[in-house]
């Protein structure tokens, strides 16, 4: 039923999954609740997500709720083969994922995951939803609803909805506060720098780090790079975000100017060709190029290949060196794919605890609410976001104040003045 690289890795995968589970107390509580209440009983869920230990604990939670789950990888370089083996051979999921598979294998795996005729879909970048609407339209009538985990995927879904192409409701889990405020900011901020440091062993202190995009991911990166002693330059197209970066003390410049100055470049925009051939031609010797946007289109790798006269593959793990005609060397990390998952282990489990708690509770809500939702992009109900935050605070032994009845009345009334 599954397609994984090596079944003998399953035991090692179980150990790593259980290690991650220690830092995911909210999801563990939801798993216990699901096992008792079975809110997903009989449902088939197809997922296209990063096959990591944290995702494995989400899959276990959905299974505890009664779901049959088929999982395909959303990025070949992020797949952990031991995790895939454990899910397939120890936890009873259907898994289609091999680290480093080619483009043909990537899409074949998504098609295989869809063979369960899903009732619900979970996506990480909108590729699975895209295939449903282009190549597997025969399954659209059976899909009740879905969830999307990434900024890039939500952008694509909104475009589908605007064009009237989206055939079922999809909940933008990415847009919940307990996802984008923490996963995107703290998770991406830490894990991206972790991947860059592992791949290059560079010292960030004293370096000029150019960050393309100042959404939640860019903010987290800028904060952490500055905390490690880097000079941070931000590039943006959004005046409000550029102003935000400026008032936080970051230098804001167009990429055409930043390209000449940067030592390390990190793209987190969700768009293509953010660093193009013109920018690459300006960069200084030894510049490091990394991407933490979902797809490998933010850095124009084809232009880099055309500029290079020599390419040294694997100068370090997940680092390729491109030598230009004048002898300058540019170092591309993780082939321009997600550096935090290809060169490191992705977000810490403690922050994915919230994101995947959002996913699990939203799936349970959709099991009942899907019939009331029109085709299109929907928000996660506020009560789910609040519940996840409450459970996370409790797991950290953090207490907060509670409104008195008088305070509650005051907030609810417009008649009371000063």
From TrEMBL:
<dbReference type="Pfam" id="PF00670">
    <property type="entry name" value="AdoHcyase_NAD"/>
</dbReference>
<feature type="binding site">
    <location>
        <position position="271"/>
    </location>
    <ligand>
        <name>NAD(+)</name>
    </ligand>
</feature>
<comment type="similarity">
    <text>Belongs to the adenosylhomocysteinase family.</text>
</comment>
<feature type="binding site">
    <location>
        <begin position="215"/>
        <end position="220"/>
    </location>
    <ligand>
        <name>NAD(+)</name>
    </ligand>
</feature>
<keyword id="KW-0378">Hydrolase</keyword>
<feature type="binding site">
    <location>
        <position position="183"/>
    </location>
    <ligand>
        <name>substrate</name>
    </ligand>
</feature>
<dbReference type="InterPro" id="IPR000043">
    <property type="entry name" value="Adenosylhomocysteinase-like"/>
</dbReference>
<dbReference type="GO" id="GO:0004013">
    <property type="term" value="F:adenosylhomocysteinase activity"/>
</dbReference>
<keyword id="KW-0520">NAD</keyword>
<feature type="binding site">
    <location>
        <begin position="292"/>
        <end position="294"/>
    </location>
    <ligand>
        <name>NAD(+)</name>
    </ligand>
</feature>
<feature type="binding site">
    <location>
        <position position="52"/>
    </location>
    <ligand>
        <name>substrate</name>
    </ligand>
</feature>
<protein>
    <recommendedName>
        <fullName>Adenosylhomocysteinase</fullName>
        <ecNumber>3.13.2.1</ecNumber>
    </recommendedName>
</protein>
<feature type="domain" description="S-adenosyl-L-homocysteine hydrolase NAD binding">
    <location>
        <begin position="184"/>
        <end position="346"/>
    </location>
</feature>
<feature type="binding site">
    <location>
        <position position="179"/>
    </location>
    <ligand>
        <name>substrate</name>
    </ligand>
</feature>
<feature type="binding site">
    <location>
        <position position="347"/>
    </location>
    <ligand>
        <name>NAD(+)</name>
    </ligand>
</feature>
<comment type="function">
    <text>May play a key role in the regulation of the intracellular concentration of adenosylhomocysteine.</text>
</comment>
<dbReference type="GO" id="GO:0071269">
    <property type="term" value="P:L-homocysteine biosynthetic process"/>
</dbReference>
<keyword id="KW-0963">Cytoplasm</keyword>
<dbReference type="InterPro" id="IPR036291">
    <property type="entry name" value="NAD(P)-bd_dom_sf"/>
</dbReference>
<dbReference type="InterPro" id="IPR015878">
    <property type="entry name" value="Ado_hCys_hydrolase_NAD-bd"/>
</dbReference>
<feature type="binding site">
    <location>
        <position position="236"/>
    </location>
    <ligand>
        <name>NAD(+)</name>
    </ligand>
</feature>
<feature type="binding site">
    <location>
        <begin position="213"/>
        <end position="218"/>
    </location>
    <ligand>
        <name>NAD(+)</name>
    </ligand>
</feature>
<dbReference type="GO" id="GO:0033353">
    <property type="term" value="P:S-adenosylmethionine cycle"/>
</dbReference>
<feature type="binding site">
    <location>
        <begin position="150"/>
        <end position="152"/>
    </location>
    <ligand>
        <name>NAD(+)</name>
    </ligand>
</feature>
<comment type="pathway">
    <text>Amino-acid biosynthesis; L-homocysteine biosynthesis; L-homocysteine from S-adenosyl-L-homocysteine: step 1/1.</text>
</comment>
<dbReference type="InterPro" id="IPR020082">
    <property type="entry name" value="S-Ado-L-homoCys_hydrolase_CS"/>
</dbReference>
<dbReference type="Pfam" id="PF05221">
    <property type="entry name" value="AdoHcyase"/>
</dbReference>
<feature type="binding site">
    <location>
        <position position="340"/>
    </location>
    <ligand>
        <name>NAD(+)</name>
    </ligand>
</feature>
<keyword id="KW-0554">One-carbon metabolism</keyword>
<feature type="binding site">
    <location>
        <position position="124"/>
    </location>
    <ligand>
        <name>substrate</name>
    </ligand>
</feature>
<feature type="binding site">
    <location>
        <position position="184"/>
    </location>
    <ligand>
        <name>NAD(+)</name>
    </ligand>
</feature>
<dbReference type="GO" id="GO:0006730">
    <property type="term" value="P:one-carbon metabolic process"/>
</dbReference>
<dbReference type="InterPro" id="IPR042172">
    <property type="entry name" value="Adenosylhomocyst_ase-like_sf"/>
</dbReference>
<dbReference type="GO" id="GO:0005829">
    <property type="term" value="C:cytosol"/>
</dbReference>
């Amino acid at each position: 039923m599954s397609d994984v690289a090596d079944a003998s890795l399953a035991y090692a995968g179980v150990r790593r999954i259980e290690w991650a589970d220690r830092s995911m107390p909210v999801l563990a509580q939801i798993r216990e609740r699901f096992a008792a209440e079975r809110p997903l009983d009989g449902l088939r869920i197809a997922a296209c997500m990063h096959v990591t230990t944290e995702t494995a604990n989400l899959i276990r939670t959905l299974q505890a709720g009664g779901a049959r789950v088929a999982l395909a990888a959303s990025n070949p370089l992020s797949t952990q083969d031991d995790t895939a083996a454990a899910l397939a051979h120890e936890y009873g999921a259907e898994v289609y994922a091999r680290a480093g598979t080619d483009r043909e294998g990537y899409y074949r795996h998504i098609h295989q995951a869809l063979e369960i005729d899903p009732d619900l879909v979970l996506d990480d970048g909108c590729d699975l939803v895209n295939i449903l609407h282009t190549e597997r339209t025969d399954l659209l009538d059976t899909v009740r609803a879905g969830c999307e985990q990434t900024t890039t995927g939500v952008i694509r879904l909104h475009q589908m909805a605007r064009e009237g192409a989206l055939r079922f409701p999809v909940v933008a889990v990415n847009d919940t506060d307990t996802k984008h405020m923490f996963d995107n900011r703290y998770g991406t901020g830490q894990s991206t720098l972790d991947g860059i440091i592992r791949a290059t062993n560079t010292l960030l202190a004293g370096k000029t780090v150019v960050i393309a995009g100042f959404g939640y991911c860019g903010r987290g990166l800028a904060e952490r790079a500055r905390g490690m002693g880097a000079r941070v330059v931000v590039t943006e197209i959004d005046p409000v975000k550029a102003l935000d970066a400026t008032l936080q003390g970051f230098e804001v410049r167009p990429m055409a100017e930043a390209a000449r100055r940067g030592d390390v470049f990190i793209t987190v925009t969700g768009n293509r060709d953010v660093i193009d051939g013109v920018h690459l031609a300006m960069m200084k010797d030894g510049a490091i190029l990394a991407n933490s946007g979902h797809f490998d289109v933010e850095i124009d790798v084809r232009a880099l290949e055309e500029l290079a006269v020599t390419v040294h593959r694997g100068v370090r793990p997940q680092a390729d060196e491109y030598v230009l005609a004048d002898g300058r060397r540019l170092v591309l990390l993780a082939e321009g794919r997600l550096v935090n998952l290809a060169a490191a282990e992705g977000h810490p489990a403690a922050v994915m605890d919230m994101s995947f708690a959002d996913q699990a509770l939203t799936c349970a809500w959709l099991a009942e609410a899907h019939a009331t939702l029109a085709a299109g992009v929907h928000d996660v109900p506020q009560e789910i976001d609040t519940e996840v935050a409450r459970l996370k605070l409790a797991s950290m032994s953090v207490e907060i104040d509670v409104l008195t009845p008088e305070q509650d009345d005051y907030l609810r009334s417009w008649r009371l003045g000063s």
